[in-house]
């Protein structure tokens, strides 16, 4: 499956899950919140709903030790460029079965909100 189809599938799953929660009366994150963006972009599928990590993606705790907001936003737009130039990221990339998708077309405000959430983890 290509990265764009994987992202589209992840997004569709996240939307379906959100609709199911609404239909059941469960409350989810506020629309437009960092948590809603995290779920809507499919991040929880690989990194877990609480950013705890899973077999398909690493935990997102402690990112503030190695990343700043601008660099993390750039990474989210084009992760492969970072993986190719950073031995630590290359190693991490090789440990998981799903490659980090690129969010090149995502709105800047959404990526910044998402980056702030991840940096606060």
Question: What does this 3D model show about the protein?
Answer:
- The chain is mainly alpha-helical.
- The protein has a single domain, classed as Cytochrome c-like domain (Cytochrome Bc1 Complex, Chain D, domain 2), CATH 1.10.760.10.
- The protein has 7 helices and no strands.
- It has helices at residues 3-23, 34-40, 43-47, 69-77, 79-85, 87-95, 108-119.
- Helix 2 crosses helix 7 and helix 4 crosses helix 5 (79-85).
- It is globular.
Concise synopsis of the structure shown:
This protein has 121 residues and is mostly helical. The protein is built from 7 helices and no strands.
Descriptors:
121 residues, mainly alpha, Cytochrome Bc1 Complex, Chain D, domain 2, 58% helix, 0% strand
Class inferred from helices and paired strands = mainly alpha
Task: Give the helix proportion (percent range).
Answer: 55-70%
Number of strands: 0
In CATH, the topology is named: Cytochrome Bc1 Complex, Chain D, domain 2
- Report mean pLDDT, rounded to a whole number: 85
Count of helices? 7
Topology at a glance:
Layout: H1 3-23, H2 34-40, H3 43-47, H4 69-77, H5 79-85, H6 87-95, H7 108-119
Helix pairs in contact: 2-7, 4-5, 4-7, 5-6
